[in-house]
Amino acid sequence: MDYTAQLDTALNRLHEEGRYRTFIDIERKKGQFPHATWRKPDGTETPIAVWCGNDYLGMGQHPAVLEAMHEAIDATGAGSGGTRNISGTTVYHKRLEAELADLHGKESALLFTSAYIANDATLSTVPKLFPGLIIYSDELNHASMIEGIRRNGGAKRIFRHNDLGDLRAKLEADDPAAPKLIAFESIYSMDGDFGPIEALCDLADEFGALTYIDEVHAVGMYGPRGAGVAERDRLMHRIDIINGTLAKAYGVMGGYIAASHKMCDAIRSYAPGFIFTTSLPPAVAAGAAASVAFLKTSGGQKLRDQHQTQARILKTRLKGMGLPIIDHGSHIVPVIVGDPVHTKQLSDMLLEGFGIYVQPINFPTVPRGTERLRFTPSPVHGPGEMDRLVHAMDELWSHCALNRAEMAG
Q1: Residues classed as catalytic
Q2: d(CA 370, CA 350)
Q3: What long-range pairs does 1-8 form, CB within 8 A, spacing at least 24?
Q4: Which of 1, 89, 229, 265 has the most C-beta neighbours closer than 10 Å?
Q5: How many CA atoms lie within 13 A of 221 on its CB side?
Q6: Cβ-Cβ contacts under 8 Å for 186 (sequence gap 6 or more)
Q7: DSSP H or E run through 187
């Protein structure tokens, strides 16, 4: 076997399909986000505006977060020193879990190094806790949920996206006595559409199923205290397990689940992804706790309102130019290009010609033929940045002779 040749074949296939991923080397500037510096391969530097980041509210720059992290690193040093079970549980981890449990109105929360690991570890572990469990998963669930469900060795049913009739048919076809879990998201990040949470909970009640929701793209940004769409819709009490991230709206790093004390205790005790992973650095936990606490307040609500306003303005202006955006009423602003090569070219031209950074989104993240640029406006994107983006998109759309036909949400 010529292993090097096989690697060349695999990588060349991505290049030929126009979906080889290129990392952009950027340096964020404290207090200046969304402005950053792009370090080009030739060593030169160019100022840019970041339009595709997941630091949705700019909390990665917030003074309360930075102060908490400085205090923790001065007090404890860099790393945690071990897994949660072996010397890696500190007052900072416990404080963060308490903040998260309070946020979601649950008895407990369990901290992971990322929301990906939280989804994977939890969904691969629940069949060990409930023998014979059948998991019903929306077909557009995140890769971390898919991977966890695939690895758990139990029964699974994939239902069509947000299709309650298809889910009902699958529930009715299975043994009424079998333990069941319905897994779904509150906001699907590529199209920005919402899951029908209340109707899914109704089906769960009817068929005796547990509910598992991924609120990764909603925590911090929806609800009176930022607990997500389930809080906004007053449905958190009907969700058994809530998954969230600390790396997007909270601006730091990490993931978690919030649930009953017994559920968290069981996952903590059985999930290899939790047991054998070094815990987050105390400074990271401290910064995340400060961010969660702040976004529960009126100051957090102000940021949420500004965020939604920015998203509405951008969508309205892009629609006004006839650009094909998908609008489901969330903060996600996808502009459909429909071809991986053209999407990469547009991304490159925005970066090189206008100092605007938005990463192309291609297969397998989205289906072939729906390749897109996905914009994430934030409260720290000012009117000047918005004008430059809109004018650049208008100019490049004409330059590339792309269609100007609005896509229905």
Answers
A1: 248
A2: 19
A3: none
A4: 229
A5: 33
A6: 194, 195, 197, 213, 214, 215, 217, 218, 222, 228, 229, 230
A7: strand 187-188
- Residue 374 CB partners (closer than 8 Å, separation 6+): 52, 189, 190, 332, 333, 334, 335, 358, 359, 361
- What are the Cα distances from residue 278, in Å, to 84, 87, 89, 101, 186? 7, 10, 10, 22, 29
Helix (H, G, I), strand (E, B) or coil at 259: strand
Q: Which residues pair with 243 in a beta bridge?
A: 214, 257
Tell whether pTM > 0.85: yes
Closest-CA residue to 332 (of 145, 56, 50)? 56
Residue among 23, 22, 53 nearest 356 (CA): 53
Both tokens assigned to 148: 């966890």
| Distance set, CA 74 to CA 18, 80, 89, 290 (Å) | 46, 13, 18, 16
- Tokens 């790393």, residue located: 79
Q: List the beta bridge partners of residue 37.
A: 27, 47
Output the CA torsion sign for 84, 88, 94, 100. negative
pLDDT by residue, tens only, the chain of 409 residues: 999 999 999 999 999 888 888 888 999 888 899 999 999 888 899 999 999 999 999 999 999 999 999 999 999 999 999 999 999 999 999 999 999 999 999 999 999 999 999 999 999 999 999 999 999 999 999 999 999 999 888 899 999 999 999 999 999 999 999 999 999 999 998 899 999 999 999 999 999 999 999 999 999 999 999 999 999 999 999 999 999 999 999 999 999 999 999 999 999 999 999 999 999 999 999 999 999 999 999 999 999 999 999 999 999 999 999 999 999 999 999 999 998 889 999 999 999 999 999 999 988 888 899 999 999 999 999 999 999 999 999 999 888 877 776 444 4
Tally of residues, the chain = 409
- Dist. CA 342–CA 370, nearest whole Å: 12
Between CA 162 and CA 165 the distance in angstroms is 9
Alpha carbons 43 and 47: distance in angstroms, whole number: 13
C-beta of residue 134 within 8 angstroms of C-beta of residue 182: no
Q: Is 186 in contact with 229 (CB distance < 8 Å)?
A: yes
